[in-house]
Amino acid sequence: MQTGTIVSLAIYFIAMLGIGFYAWRKSTSDIDGYVLGGRSLGPGVTALSAGAADMSGWLMLGLPGAMFAAGLSKAWIGVGLFIGAFINWLVVAPRLRDRTVEVGDALTIPDYFGKRFPNGVSVQVVSSAVIIIFFTLYTASGLVAGGKLFDSAFGESYRLGLFLTGGVVVAYTLFGGFLAVSLTDFVQGCIMFVAMIMVPIVAMQGAGGWDHAGQVIRSVDPTHLSLLKGVGALGLISSLAWGLGYFGQPHIIVRFMAIRSRKDIPTSRNIGMSWMFVTLVGSLSVGLAGLAYATENNVKIDDPETIFIVLSDVLFNPWISGFLLAAILAAVMSTISSQLLVSSSSLVEDYYRRFLRRDASQKELVLAGRIAVLVVALIALAIAWNPGASVLNIVSYAWAGFGAAFGPLVILSLTWDKITRNGALVGMILGAVTVGIWIALGWSDWLYEIVPGFVIAWVSIWLVSILEGDKAQTIQPVAAE
Fold first, then answer.
1. Contact between 309 and 235 (Cβ < 8 Å)
2. Which class would CATH give 3-392?
3. What is the average pLDDT score of the chain?
4. What CA–CA distance (Å, rounded) separates 118 from 62?
5. φ and ψ at residue 297, rounded to 5 degrees
6. What span, in angstroms and rounded, lies between the C-alpha atoms of 335 and 203?
7. Angle of CA points 414, 417, 421, to nearest 5°
8. Where are the alpha helices (DSSP H) in 259-317?
């Protein structure tokens, strides 16, 4: 590894730890500050924090790799994500910000479910279990991405990459809590934004320009630039259905709970969607530009998911290369930190505080949260020990699990006053179980598991709630912005 690259990465790591130290001094004296930042985030930090937490390592590894290997038809995933994110900002964001305060200052998504329904402890406990299970898997995908970065870009051990990536994330998350996670996400989002503009443009120029690059790509596969290459009706539905996952991702929608005011949401939405559009287009372009560059210059790509890493290494001087590789770490670490914090928050708020230590002091709860961060990180590290794991596959499973289990429940709990506790519980369980069964049976190859999971969860909530309509809690749905 060259000196410039080492220095750039060192500066990045020090900056992240510095933000964690600042947040530790400012907002971790009580559990509200540790898990939700005291609901004080501005629109810019909220937008980029939500975006960076969303666009994990798959933005720079998984999605470009899919474009490199399969072609433009993989762009439908980006289209589905963009539509889903926009609807999420419109439907969920303003309502969730108000409702979580109105039900009794809920600090976590399971806490909101528990307070939203009469005798909702069962809903809270089950939803918290879903979060812990799926987020441990999700966190593992981020560690895999970090390990691949060190292996491909630096020639260092994959497992050394796991420890370094996980170690820095755990340090600033454990000490700085939600504020550290949000502020580091903001910085990381800015780095990702610049990187996803620079790399595809320079790579395309290195391939001979846009027109020539297109010719090169067609020489490899005449159908590679077709949006409909190998895409049937079910394939199109599967790709677009990624957007359904947004409504149930706790690490994303928790940002809506933390924004300082409902009035800031339109501004935050505009910033967030603009950022997302640029980074998604950049990610898709990296895959295509990378294929053109590698073909034109006889660069061997053993693993398509490393195309961004390869381009960063061969196209730029070590100082810029270090910055670009830090962008991958930014994408990876921003998501890992968010998932660790949400998981630990659920362990503390939904289990430890509710069942073990109802009278625990604020200092004790914060300490318990830090211990929980460490425990979840260690389990995720064990899962990520296998270097052959696919980032996109791991993310797709966890994304589907959350989307099916929580998506319909979040939307209906905010917009429909006839939903009952049992309807919520049955829908959430069936949504998660359907995703697991679908994956186990190998049916994901022809239809993304989030589709049946989401539909079954929605229908189950509606049907059970209608059948026991007299048990619904009378509550006025929150209006949109």
1. no
2. mainly alpha
3. 84
4. 42
5. -110, 10
6. 27
7. 85
8. 265-296, 307-315
Domain boundaries, the chain: 3-392
| Angle formed at CA 346 by CA 342 and CA 350, multiple of 5 degrees | 160
Distance, in Å, from the CA atom of 431 to the CA atom of 408, rounded to the nearest integer, reads 9
- The answer to whether 172 and 180 are in contact (CB under 8 A) is yes
- Specify the pTM: 0.85
Q: By C-alpha distance, which of 81, 159, 100 is closest to 388?
A: 159
166-175, 231-240, 341-350, 453-462: which is most confident: 453-462
Let me know: does 196 contact 282? Beta carbons within 8 Å.
yes
- β-partners of residue 259 are 41
* CB burial string 387-398: b at 16+ within 10 A, e below: eebbbbebbbbb
Contact 180, 24 (CB under 8 A): yes
Amino acid at 407: G
Q: What tokens does 101 get?
A: 């305060």
Measured CA to CA in angstroms, residue 447 lies from 243, 248, 269, 406 at distances of 14, 19, 30, 20
- The tally of CA atoms less than 13 A away on the side-chain side of residue 398 is 27
Find the length of the chain: 481
Please give the C-alpha separations between residue 344 and each of 21, 127, 371, 376, 443, in angstroms, as whole numbers: 19, 14, 8, 7, 32
Average pLDDT over residues 51-55: 78
CB–CB of 195/329 below 8 Å? no
Concatenating the DSSP letter of every residue in 256-268 gives HHHBS-GGGHHHH
Contact 131/409 with Cβ under 8 angstroms?
no
Q: What is the DSSP letter of 479?
A: P
Q: Whole-angstrom distance between the N-terminal and C-terminal Cα of the chain?
A: 51
Contact by Cβ (8 Å): 467, 77: no
pLDDT single digits (tens) 257-275: 989 888 999 999 999 999 9
- Please, how many CA atoms are within 13 Å of residue 327, restricted to the half-sphere of its CB? 26
